[in-house]
């Protein structure tokens, strides 16, 4: 346990997949963590009430405003485990309050981009996304100047190995059936289209300051290696563990410390093999599209993310084909004029987000 007593933790999005796993870790480590704030979106009020009764946080509430209030509370760590662009204001509030931000809500960093980075002190954002947690761990193996490239691993999703033509009649049920992780619905569909990996390439660029041409993606179906860093001497350091978010969440809450027994380790007593495949860009164009959006910068990543959220929703409601998700996002991006001004405001980002949602809606309605 810590010599300074337990760390005070705010969990935003406490009823979700990441949020509930974070609370499991708190429950298992009462000497390390103490919950002082809880917020959620209101989709599961019974669970939220149970959590409030169990953890008795100082601040709790539903929705964006409650999340901002909790994020601004003086505490050790704010875990942002909200899904989607609505996580942006809470992210900015946590940073402005000087709190360490354990960031699962990658969307806020990706859409906010420089807006988020300029408010963050070095080390203030600790990634919870498993790939970025892996990279942060691997980066301990050398100096920043020694880094040659980042290598993000991708499960390839449930449709790995299929051609574009073979993806046309994929149903939401099939896409929601992720092989390894149990996650919220948006990120599960995003794993199937590889939009999630596209978002993660942008996230890696922003978190670690590595240019896009030095961030690679490799398909690794077993999801035992969570990402790697290649150093300039030719050495690659990889982080491996059983596929589970518990280790990255625990590191997010305890960084730079590790939480003993946070998750299951590898089992070397049984034979196993780990495969690696190059990404099929034709069947899964989401990653190259994200690179282009990331290179454009400005509000382009926000448009990529927002248009995709609308497409995912339409796909889940049977109104858009699986193979039309990424082309629709691409069409909305092509229509979007990236503002030429240097400094974006929160309003610019949220305006672009709103514009992209309507533009995607129009295209989906026009097609059906
Ligand atoms: P989820 O859908 O299971 O949970 C989302 C949570 O956010 C819920 O508690 C919901 O009530 C809450 N929420 C929604 N709107 C809100 C609002 N306005 N104010 C406060 N809370 C609100 O999602 P998840 O799978 O836990 O993912 C959360 C984030 O973590 C996402 O950004 C996702 O990309 C990222 N992430 C998840 C995983 C995973 O394994 N689940 C892995 C890596 C990254
Ligand atoms: Mg990830």
Automatic annotation (TrEMBL):
Binding site for Mn(2+): 129, 131, 200
Function of the molecule: Catalyzes the NADPH-dependent rearrangement and reduction of 1-deoxy-D-xylulose-5-phosphate (DXP) to 2-C-methyl-D-erythritol 4-phosphate (MEP).
Record domain 1-deoxy-D-xylulose 5-phosphate reductoisomerase N-terminal: where: 9-58, 62-113
Protein's UniProt name: 1-deoxy-D-xylulose 5-phosphate reductoisomerase
Similarity annotation: Belongs to the DXR family.
Protein's UniProt keywords contain rRNA-binding: no
GO annotation terms (biological process): isopentenyl diphosphate biosynthetic process, methylerythritol 4-phosphate pathway involved in terpenoid biosynthetic process
Cofactors that this protein relies on: Mg(2+); Mn(2+)
Family matches, as SUPFAM superfamilies: 1-deoxy-D-xylulose-5-phosphate reductoisomerase, C-terminal domain (SSF69055), Glyceraldehyde-3-phosphate dehydrogenase-like, C-terminal domain (SSF55347), NAD(P)-binding Rossmann-fold domains (SSF51735)
Name of the gene: dxr
Pfam families: DXP_redisom_C, DXP_reductoisom, DXPR_C
Domain DXP reductoisomerase C-terminal, residue spans: 241-358
Sample GO molecular function, one term: 1-deoxy-D-xylulose-5-phosphate reductoisomerase activity
Biological pathway: Isoprenoid biosynthesis; isopentenyl diphosphate biosynthesis via DXP pathway; isopentenyl diphosphate from 1-deoxy-D-xylulose 5-phosphate: step 1/6
Plastid found in the keyword field: no
Record's keyword terms, sorted: Isomerase, Isoprene biosynthesis, Magnesium, Manganese, Metal-binding, NADP, Oxidoreductase
InterPro entries per UniProt: DXP_reductoisomerase, DXP_reductoisomerase_C, DXP_reductoisomerase_N, DXPR_C, DXPR_C_sf, NAD(P)-bd_dom_sf
Catalytic activity: 2-C-methyl-D-erythritol 4-phosphate + NADP(+) = 1-deoxy-D-xylulose 5-phosphate + NADPH + H(+)
Positions of 1-deoxy-D-xylulose 5-phosphate binding: 106, 130-131, 155, 178, 191, 196-197, 200
Binding site for NADPH: 15-18, 41, 44, 105, 107, 184
